[in-house]
Structure formats: C-alpha cells, structure tokens
Write a structure and sequence with these properties.
2 strands, 7 helices, single chain, two-stranded antiparallel ribbon, mainly alpha, extended, 168 residues, 29% helix
C-alpha cells in the first residue's frame, strides 16, 4: 500500500510558521474594538492606491478589503462571513474574565448581542462623497443626435439626402 502524501518537505519545516501566518487576519477582540470605536472611519476610508479596491470596499467583521462592490456583496453571502458574524455575537473575553476563570472572582456569562452585516457602500455613503469608479454626469461628453446629420456617399463625396432617385 502506498504511503500517505507528506504535507511538508523535510527541509521546509522552518517555513511552516510563515505559511501559517501569511493569511492571518485580525482577532475577534480587535474587530470588536473596531466595531465599537471606529467603524464609521473604516467604512469611509480615504483612497489608498496600495490596497485592493483603493480601500473603498472593506468588510469590518472580517477585516478584509475587496476589489469592488460586487465582490463585497458576494463575500457577505459566504460561509466565512456568516461564521465570523456568529463568532462576534458573543462578547470577546477580557482580562477580568481570565482572572475569574483562574479563581479570582465569580464567573459571569458573556453577553450575546445581535450582529448584522454592514450596510452597502451605496447605502452608507449616499450623497456624502463620490466613489472612485463612478463618473460624474457633467463630465460625460454630450451625445450627438445622429438622425439629423446628413449622410455622405463615400465614393463621390455627395450628400445622399440631396440626391433624388428617379420615379419608376
């Protein structure tokens, strides 16, 4: 019987920690602080060219940036986002909770709270500022009405509207 495939090469064990930490996001207590203190600031970030979507599409609950509104709305429907919302329903542990668990004080059940997905960018910033990918209506060139423009015959350069066809 063949052996099971190894997950790591024997010489790559020093890279294991780096691989594990590469996609690490904020912890639940850091996200809870963001939700309590500066959620509005995170939703209305200035344009940053180094971040995906120029930092305009940010999920507060998952602490990730997305390329456009569609990618953000698709993320809201994923299991990863729903699991994160479920985990954020319970308040994160504090230092006092850890002391109570060690025997210094009485245990208090953590409170549950209702968490909802953040509003979409269009709902949240409606009328406040212009998004990067939107074009202002005044800057668009005016459309020409081509129905009144005379048509030219390419061979002789005559206007086709002036030519009269013989009645048959």
């Amino acid at each position: 019987m063949p052996y099971a495939r190894k997950k790591m090469h024997s010489g790559d064990t020093h890279l294991r920690r780096r691989w594990r930490l590469r996609s690490r996001k904020k912890d639940l207590d850091e996200i809870d602080d963001d939700l309590k203190t500066n959620s509005e600031q995170l939703l209305n970030q200035d344009v940053d060219l180094d971040k995906p979507g120029f930092a305009q599409y940010y999920c507060i609950h998952c602490a990730t940036y997305y390329i456009n509104e569609r990618a953000l709305q698709d993320h809201f429907r994923t299991k990863v986002h729903k699991r994160r919302l479920k985990a954020l329903e319970i308040e994160p542990y504090t230092v006092e909770d850890s002391l109570r668990a060690a025997g210094q004080g009485s245990f208090a059940q953590p409170l549950k709270r209702k968490t909802e997905t953040q509003p979409s960018k269009r709902e949240y910033t409606e009328g406040k500022r212009i998004k990067v990918d939107e074009v202002i209506e005044e800057e668009k060139p005016a459309k020409q009405n081509l129905s009144k423009v005379p048509k030219y015959d390419g061979q002789y350069g005559k206007i086709l509207g002036d030519l009269k066809t013989p009645a048959s």
